[in-house]
């Protein structure tokens, strides 16, 4: 069976959740509400008949709103005409950038583990993905600057560096020092940077997302990608955008026109208005997600697993070795029956030889009652079955 026709781990785990009735903390599909005004605006656009193709570059109102958003939040100036392109989600923006800017014999550098669209996009373009491991550092993950320099220096023909910050699946927010290191390497090797910033508004504990395009000498070599899906809990709408120098955006648009051409007419109109109030909306969403993250992290620790810090995004990483497991795939396949909870093995995102197979990803973009149910189920795993009672010696509570 080819890699293109294999059943993905996300499909497998979702099917396990349905079959077992497990709480699904696997795929990052939000269970949280969306802004009522946004939903009303989109509904009105649909009922008014605005359901045909939008302009190929996206509705002017949305392109203007994206440009205003970048200027207000980050001080980045982009021309709505020529430097902003609306895409069918961030995934299409990534694929279009890979196809437009790389080909056979080229190398794309990124950080490992990584979102699974990156290796897929590299395969589509014929390029090779070169990964730099993010090493577990205390309770989080850190960039190894020497490993980054070695990867770029040793690459055959490096063309792109893909930076995902805030990072999926680790929940890492790259520090200012790490961003400066990445920028230095890109300038020294004349690399174009593609940034995946879809979690830009979901940064916790007073942290701040800093786009690498704001660093000296980086705007002119950086394509900035984001979307409405994570920010407004509308992942199914698939409306994203890409900002950057006109020459790079034009190259991406030349590919994108043959993928979807354009999509999401009524959604684009609503999102254009919603972006103006994203600061107020995202503050409430961050508060909910912070509480969920803390509840899940405390529950994983109480259950005997070792959670890592999540500075941003939807996900917590956990070390499963305290339960006697070293294989995350086996752990996730058994967890629905053992505990009634579904997670995703981090190995699904790992590309390099330095992979940590004992890491598992849990999602917290769920209703608080789903998180509480998962925590209770994990705590109730009986002694002697790899659960907490077998580790700590305490008596496990009865299943609920």
Written account of the structure:
A hairpin with a 2-residue loop joins strand 4 (128-137) and strand 5 (140-143). Helix content is 41%, strand content 16%. Mean pLDDT is 92; it is low at 389-400. It is of the alpha/beta class and 400 residues long. The protein has 2 domains: 3-34 and 280-392, Aspartate Aminotransferase, domain 1 (Alpha-Beta Complex); 36-276, 3-Layer(aba) Sandwich (Aspartate Aminotransferase, domain 2). The strands form 3 sheets. It has an 8-stranded mixed sheet with strand order 2-9-8-7-6-3-4-5, sandwiched between helices. The protein has helices at residues 9-20, 36-47, 60-74, 89-101, 117-125, 145-154, 176-188, 229-232, 246-256, 265-274, 278-302, 328-339, 368-379, 388-392, and strands at 23-24, 84-87, 107-112, 128-137, 140-143, 158-164, 192-196, 222-227, 240-243, 306-307, 315-319, 341-342, 344-345, 359-363. The protein contains 14 helices and 14 strands.
In short:
The protein is of the alpha/beta class. The chain folds into 2 domains: 3-34 and 280-392, Alpha-Beta Complex (Aspartate Aminotransferase, domain 1); 36-276, Aspartate Aminotransferase, domain 2, CATH 3.40.640.10.
Strand and helix map with partners:
Blueprint (H helix, E strand, L loop, with lengths): L8 H12 L2 E2 L11 H12 L12 H15 L9 E4 L1 H13 L5 E6 L4 H9 L2 E10 L2 E4 L1 H10 L3 E7 L11 H13 L3 E5 L25 E6 L1 H4 L7 E4 L2 H11 L8 H10 L3 H25 L3 E2 L7 E5 L8 H12 L1 E2 L1 E2 L13 E5 L4 H12 L8 H5 L8
Helix pairs in contact: 1-12, 2-10, 3-10, 4-5, 4-9, 6-7, 11-13
Key attributes of the depicted protein:
400 residues, alpha/beta, Aspartate Aminotransferase, domain 1, Aspartate Aminotransferase, domain 2, four-stranded antiparallel sheet
């Amino acid at each position: 069976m080819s890699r293109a026709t294999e059943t993905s781990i996300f499909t497998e785990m979702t099917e396990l959740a349905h079959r077992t009735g497990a709480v699904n903390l696997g795929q990052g599909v939000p269970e949280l509400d969306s802004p009522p005004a946004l939903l009303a605006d989109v509904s009105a656009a649909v009922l008014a008949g605005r359901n045909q193709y939008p302009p190929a570059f996206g509705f002017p109102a949305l392109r203007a709103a994206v440009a205003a958003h970048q200027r207000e939040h980050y001080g980045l100036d982009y021309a709505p005409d020529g430097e902003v392109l609306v895409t069918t989600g961030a995934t299409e923006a990534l694929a279009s950038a890979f196809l437009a800017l790389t080909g056979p014999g080229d190398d794309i550098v990124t950080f490992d583990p990584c979102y699974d669209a990156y290796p897929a996009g590299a395969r589509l373009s014929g390029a090779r993905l070169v990964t730099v491991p993010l090493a577990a550092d205390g309770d989080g993950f850190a960039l190894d600057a020497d490993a980054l320099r070695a990867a770029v220096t040793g690459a055959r023909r490096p063309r792109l560096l893909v930076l995902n910050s805030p990072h999926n699946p680790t929940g890492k927010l790259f520090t200012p020092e790490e961003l400066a290191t990445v920028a230095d390497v890109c300038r020294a090797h004349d690399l174009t940077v593609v940034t995946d910033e879809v979690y830009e508004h979901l940064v916790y504990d007073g942290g701040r997302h800093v786009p690498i395009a704001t660093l000296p000498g980086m705007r002119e070599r950086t394509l900035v990608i984001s979307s409405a899906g994570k920010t407004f809990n509308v992942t199914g709408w698939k409306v994203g955008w890409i900002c950057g120098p006109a020459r790079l955006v034009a190259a991406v648009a030349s590919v994108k026109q043959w993928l979807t051409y354009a999509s999401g007419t009524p959604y684009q109109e609503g999102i254009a208005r919603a972006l103006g109030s994203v600061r107020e909306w995202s503050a409430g969403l961050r508060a909910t997600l912070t509480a969920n993250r803390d509840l899940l992290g405390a529950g994983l620790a109480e259950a005997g697993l070792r959670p890592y810090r999540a500075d941003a995004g939807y996900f917590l990483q956990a070390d499963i070795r305290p339960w006697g497991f070293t294989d995350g795939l086996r752990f996730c396949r058994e967890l629905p029956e053992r505990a009634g909870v579904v997670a995703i093995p981090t190995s699904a995102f790992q590309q390099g030889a330095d992979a940590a197979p004992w890491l598992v990803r849990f999602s917290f973009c769920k209703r608080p009652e789903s998180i509480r149910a998962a925590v209770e189920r994990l705590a109730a795993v009986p002694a002697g079955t790899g659960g907490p009672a077998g580790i700590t010696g305490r008596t496990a509570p009865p299943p609920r």
